[in-house]
Every structure is written in C-alpha cells, then in structure tokens.
Amino acid sequence: MKYADIDKIYQKVPLEKIPWNSEMPPDALVELVQSEKVRPCKTIDLGCGAGNDAIYLAGQGFEVTGVDSSPTAIKIATENAQKKGVRCRFIVADFLGDLHEVKETFDFGYDWELLHHIFPEDREKYIKNVCNVLKPGALYFSVCFSEKDPQFGEAGKFQKTKLGTTLYFSSESEIRDLLSPYFVIQELKTIEIKAIVGSHYVISALSKRR
C-alpha cells in the first residue's frame, strides 16, 4: 500500500482545511506539561507539521526540534515560530529512513497523530528510529487513532480519508507490543480527544526509553 504525498497536501490544501492542523495544543499534551509528568527539556516533535505543538512547548521552556517529512510543512513551521517570536529548530527528515538528519539525542520525544499514518509493516522501523534519537531514560509520548473510533464510519483497520491519506486504526495490544521491546510503558489507555470537527478515540501511550 502506497503512502500519500503529504508535502503535496501542505502545498495544495489551506492549513485550516487540514484536519490534523490545530493552532491549539492538545489537552493531553497540556495536561502532561502542567502536571509536570514531563518538564522542560531537550525535546523532539516527530511529525511536527506546521509547528503548532513545537511552538507551544518552546513557549513553556522546552528546547524543541521539530521534524517532518514535508519540506513545505517545515517552511510553514519556521515562519510560524518566527512570527510568534519563539525559538524552535525545524528539520526535514524521513521517519522511515535512518533519521541521519537528526544529529542529537533528546530527553523527550513526542508524536501526535503520526503513528496512524504509518502502516504496521513499517512501524518497527519507525520505533527503532525514535529510540535512536532519544537518550536512555527519555520519555516518549505518542497518540494514534484507536480501532474503537467510529469517526470515519467504515469497517476495517485501514481507512481512507478525503485528503487521500490512508490511516491504520490500532488496538491497545498492538501499541503495547510495538513499544515494549524498546520502552517501559508507564501509561497506555484509550481516551477521547477533541478534533476540529467532533471527537476521536485514540490510544495514548507514555513510556520511558530502555
């Protein structure tokens, strides 16, 4: 199954029409920061898109590097950070390559609604890459669509969106099996989150790199 051209989406679709693009940080991320489960540190935002969450974290005192496979998204993110007077670094990199573009390691890794864009056969490669850019003991927070989510009104684990992307809807056991060889899972649960339209059920996982 072929992946959609995400860069073309950022080139052609207005930001307000891209369903994963929200200027407001997710409540689950805000709660993580405000509860001090994660404190300001050297952070990598994987699949940063237009940079909204990276900018939020930088405003909370985090030293943030945002990474995305879309050069257009990275250009937008850089401009957004400059407009808001926030210091972030943004890098174009392929999550399913070797992430050689990322030269450092980090204390906190974060991806929001990226993993459901990665098909099961490629997920171990991705998780190994995440592990490689995190220091031992670093926290990793990931959120992806749950198979319990009815939003798209279709049956099956793979579902196609109006933008032409194909998403994979996971079970908690799949995420546990994916993370466990590389991370000690601290929290793994299905939660309901707000979307631009309606809400979604997602699997939220907070873990620590082995």
* Biggest sheet features: 7 strands, mixed
Count of all domains: 1
Q: Structural class from helices and strands?
A: alpha/beta
Low-confidence stretches: none
Report the CATH topology name.
Rossmann fold
Order of secondary-structure elements: HHEHEHEEHEEEHEE
Instruction: Give me the side-by-side strand order of the main sheet.
Output: 3-2-1-4-5-9-8
- Name the beta content range: 25-35%
Describe the protein:
The protein has one domain (6-16, 24-209): Rossmann fold, CATH 3.40.50.150. It is 27% helix and 30% strand. It has helices at residues 6-12, 27-34, 52-59, 71-83, 120-132, 172-179; strands at 42-46, 63-68, 89-92, 106-112, 134-145, 158-160, 166-168, 183-194, 199-209. Strands 3-2-1-4-5-9-8 form a 7-stranded mixed β-sheet. Strands 6-7 form a two-stranded antiparallel sheet.
Short description:
This is Class I SAM-dependent methyltransferase. The chain has a single domain, classed as 3-Layer(aba) Sandwich (Rossmann fold).
Descriptive terms for the model:
210 residues, alpha/beta, Rossmann fold, 7-stranded mixed sheet, two-stranded antiparallel sheet, 6 helices
Please give the structural blueprint.
Layout: H1 6-12, H2 27-34, E1 42-46, H3 52-59, E2 63-68, H4 71-83, E3 89-92, E4 106-112, H5 120-132, E5 134-145, E6 158-160, E7 166-168, H6 172-179, E8 183-194, E9 199-209
Parallel strand pairs: 1-2, 1-4, 2-3, 4-5
Antiparallel strand pairs: 5-9, 6-7, 8-9
